[in-house]
Design goal:
Elements (H helix, E strand, L loop, with lengths): L5 E7 L6 H14 L4 E9 L2 E2 L5 E2 L1 H9 L5 H4 E5 L5 H8 L5 H14 L2 E5 L7 E4 L4 E3 H8 L3 E6 L4 H14 L4 E7 L6 H14 L3 E5 L10 H6 L3
Parallel strand pairs: 1-6, 1-9, 2-5, 2-6, 9-10, 10-11
Antiparallel strand pairs: 3-4, 7-8
Helix pairs in contact: 1-2, 5-6, 7-8
The structure holds adenosine-5'-triphosphate (ATP) and magnesium ion.
Length: 230
C-alpha cells in the first residue's frame, strides 16, 4: 500500500443532507486542480440497476461528476437494493458488512489514489451490521480506517441542533472533525447567514464551504481541501 496516500471521511447531520452531492464537488475540485483523488463507500443501500445492468448509486453519481473512470465494485464494498440502513438491508438481503473487507478495499483504493474521499452512510449514528455475530457501527469504520471527518449540514432551520449533536458524538468517539460544509446555502438569507456564524460559535469547528442550491463548484481552494486529508 502507498503509505503516503491520505483519506477523509464525509459524514452529515442526517441522511439525504447532501454527502454525495458535496463529495462529488470536493472530488471534482481536487481532480481539476491535478490531485489524484478517488472515492470509496463501504455500504450503499437503495441502489438501482438499469436494463443494461448499469448500477445507479452514490458512487456512480460521484464518479460521473468528478470524472473518475473506475468500475462500481472498486468504489463500494457492499450494495443493497433496499433503501434502509445497511444493518437492516443485510438482514433482509444477506451479505452483512465485514470490517476486514472494508479495510482491504479501502487500502486498495489507497494504492490507486493519492487522496481517498470516503462517504458515510446516513448520519454519524448508523448501524452497519447488527446480528448474532457482530455489532458494527459506522464510527467503527471511521476509527478502523484512521480517518478524520468533515460534516455536511443543511444551511436552514434546525441545523445548529443537528450539528452540535453530530460533532459532540464524533468528539465522544475520539474522531476528529476538520470542518463543516453548509449545503443549500442562500447568501442574503438571514437564517442561513446566522447559522454559518453560529455553527462555528457553538461547535468550534470552521465552516469550510457554503454550497448554494445547484452549485457546480465549491467556494474553497483545492489546496485547502487536500490539506483536510490525513
Ligand atoms: N446543493 C444542492 N443543490 C441541488 N441539489 C442538491 C444539493 N444537495 C443535495 N441535492 C440533492 O438532494 C438529494 C440528496 O442529496 P445526497 O444524495 O447528496 O444526500 P446524501 O447525504 O448523500 O444521502 P444518503 O444518506 O442517501 O447517502 C439528491 O437528489 C441531491 O442531488
Ligand atoms: Mg449519499
Amino acid at each position: 500500500m502507498d503509505t503516503t496516500s491520505r483519506g477523509l471521511f464525509v459524514t452529515a447531520t442526517g441522511t439525504d443532507v447532501g454527502k454525495t452531492y458535496v463529495s462529488a464537488l470536493i472530488l471534482k475540485q481536487l481532480r481539476e486542480a491535478g490531485y489524484d483523488a478517488g472515492y470509496y463507500k463501504a455500504a450503499i443501500s437503495g441502489i438501482e440497476t438499469d436494463d443494461h445492468g448499469a448500477i445507479s448509486s452514490d458512487a456512480s453519481y460521484v464518479a460521473r461528476v468528478a470524472g473518475l473512470d473506475e468500475p462500481h465494485e472498486r468504489l463500494v464494498s457492499y450494495t443493497y437494493r433496499t433503501a434502509v440502513s445497511p444493518h437492516l438491508a443485510a438482514r433482509l438481503e444477506g451479505n452483512p458488512v465485514d470490517l476486514d473487507v472494508v479495510q482491504r478495499d479501502y487500502d486498495r483504493a489507497r494504492t490507486r489514489h493519492e487522496l481517498v474521499l470516503v462517504e458515510g452512510s446516513g448520519g454519524i449514528v448508523c448501524p452497519l451490521r447488527w446480528d448474532g455475530k457482530r455489532r458494527l457501527m459506522l464510527e467503527d469504520v471511521v476509527l478502523k480506517l484512521g480517518l478524520g471527518t468533515v460534516v455536511v449540514a443543511d444551511a436552514g432551520l434546525g441545523t445548529l441542533n443537528a450539528l452540535a449533536t453530530t460533532t459532540l458524538y464524533l468528539a465522544q468517539r475520539g474522531i476528529a472533525c476538520h470542518g463543516i460544509l453548509l449545503n443549500n446555502y442562500e447568501a442574503g438569507n438571514p437564517l442561513h447567514e446566522d447559522n454559518r456564524l453560529m455553527a462555528r460559535e457553538l461547535t468550534g469547528i470552521p465552516v469550510i464551504a457554503c454550497i448554494p442550491p445547484g452549485a457546480q463548484d465549491l467556494d474553497c481552494s483545492a489546496r485547502y481541501l487536500a490539506s483536510l486529508f490525513n
